[in-house]
TrEMBL record:
Protein name, UniProt field: Sulfur dehydrogenase subunit SoxC
PANTHER family, per database record: SULFITE OXIDASE, MITOCHONDRIAL, SULFITE REDUCTASE
Cofactor(s) required, per the database record: Mo-molybdopterin
Protein's organism: Sulfitobacter brevis
Occurrences of domain Moybdenum cofactor oxidoreductase dimerisation (ranges): 285-402
Biological process, per Gene Ontology: sulfur compound metabolic process
Source taxonomy: Bacteria, Pseudomonadati, Pseudomonadota, Alphaproteobacteria, Rhodobacterales
């Protein structure tokens, strides 16, 4: 549509600048040249009434925002993984339907009326709780990230998967409602010799992990809700263990049994799996805490720059199993110059944090990296530094700095630089 008064009417650019919104190089279309500024079909008819979708779903235009698996990673979907689409998300909360899934024997279909939580072993009084019993305990709300220890594991020997969803998407961050595990243990009365807890799931895998008593008494939750509603079946409905800051494997879903013992059980998931084979042939075990990590979620291979040179927003997330993230640094030139990113949104203990870095892109190729600092003073290492320490055999706990190379057309690729 042409504008007869083009020379006299204020442009949208001038309007935004006048309102103090535009930065240098912010590109917007001229006010009247955008043919979408018209009376659209959706203004000419009534929309759906209430209750068209009693449980709301995203707009159909958002259909590409979804979890994705990588077919060749596992032999069967029942013992597999899919990934959170980090490149599509903002803020710090992962929507329930987009939380990555990791199951060892598929999603258990648990009837909450028939579900029980048992506490036994080195206790004064063995107990069995129904879901109704549990909901009579004082409850607590906390936002925590859950990261699988294998997140970025495929990247250990070099850049492999082309998308932040696949390199970093074994993480989600939700608000849990649950009962402090300490309260349930107090009810049962742990004997002085009770130093460890075996947590077991009600899925066909009967997933089991040993958890030290100090952690259980500190901040573990027996959660029944996420982001305000009941847990999703995929996330362990009706009950899951929340082990803040520690590797996802310990967060037993469909939680049915807590046995108190005096030493760890050395089950499969804490011996042959979730153990790191070091260069000298020895094994590093019980590496529970997740080290500080960050990644730029856009631009990234699945989220190229499509607007050309000028004002560009770098968007990313950071987290630490040991506290908060007071600072993230960003570089656009492969580490020659680092800039402090802008942290935005809530800064919560053992939760995901959001950072942004706004800059004027000159249209030349970029090498993007982010580097997290956590509240203990720990700084996210390079992948090279990690390999020097741990050799080439590791899979788990890869928190190395990620590099995206962006070409002049704005396309991004997973690369490594040294
Ligand atoms: N009962 C049970 N709990 C489980 C698992 C499982 O297969 N069964 N997988 C574990 C692993 S390896 C991870 S990383 C997290 C994944 O949690 P999510 O599916 O909510 O993302 O759950 C853990 N808890
Ligand atoms: Mo995991």
């Amino acid at each position: 549509m042409s504008n007869p008064d083009k020379t006299t009417k204020p442009s949208r650019r001038a309007f935004l600048a006048g309102a103090g919104v535009a930065g240098a190089g912010l590109a917007t279309g001229a006010f009247a040249q955008d043919s979408a500024i018209t009376v659209q079909p959706w203004m000419q008819e009534l929309g759906d009434g209430v209750d068209a979708a009693p449980y709301g779903m995203p707009s159909p235009y958002e259909k590409d925002v979804k979890r994705r698996t990588v077919e060749w990673l596992t032999a069967d979907n029942a013992s597999s993984i899919n990934f959170t689409p980090l490149h599509n998300l903002d803020g710090i909360i992962t929507p329930n339907g987009l939380c990555f899934e990791r199951h060892h024997s598929g999603v258990a279909r648990v009837d909450p009326a028939e579900h029980r939580l048992m506490i036994h072993g080195l206790v004064d009084k063995p107990l069995v709780f129904t879901m109704d019993d549990l909901k009579r305990f004082p409850r607590s709300n906390h936002v925590y990230f859950l990261e699988c220890a294998a997140n970025s594991g495929m990247e250990w020997r070099g850049s492999q998967l082309n998308g932040v969803q696949f390199t970093h998407g074994m993480i989600h961050n939700v608000m849990y409602t649950g009962i402090p595990l300490r309260l349930l243990l107090e009810q049962a009365g742990v004997k002085p010799s009770g130093k460890w807890i075996l947590a077991e799931g009600a899925d066909a895998a009967a997933m089991t992990r040993s958890i030290p008593m100090e952690k259980a008494l500190d901040d573990c939750l027996v959660a029944f809700a996420m982001n305000g509603e009941a847990l999703r079946a995929e996330q362990g409905y009706p009950l899951r263990l929340v082990v803040p800051g520690w590797e996802g494997n310990m967060w037993i879903k469909w939680l049915r049994r807590l046995e108190i013992g005096d030493e760890p059980w050395h089950h499969r998931e804490e011996t042959s799996k979730y153990t790191d084979l070091l260069a000298d042939g020895t094994a590093r075990r019980f590496t529970w805490e997740m080290d500080a990590k960050s990644v730029i979620t856009s631009p990234s291979p699945q989220a190229p720059i499509t607007h050309g040179p000028g004002r560009t927003v770098i968007n990313g997330v950071a987290w630490s199993g040991r506290g908060t993230i007071p600072r993230v640094d960003v570089t656009v030139d492969g580490g020659m110059n680092w800039h402090e990113a802008r942290m935005d949104g809530p800064s919560l203990d053992k939760s995901m944090h959001r950072f942004y870095f706004e800059f004027d892109w000159d249209g030349k190729p970029l090498l993007l990296q982010s580097r997290a600092h956590d509240s203990t003073g720990y700084v996210q290492p390079t992948k090279e530094a990690l390999r020097k320490l741990r050799g080439l055999n590791s899979i788990y706990h890869n928190n190395g700095i990620q590099t995206w190379s962006v070409d002049a057309d704005g396309r991004a690729e997973n690369v490594e630089i040294s």
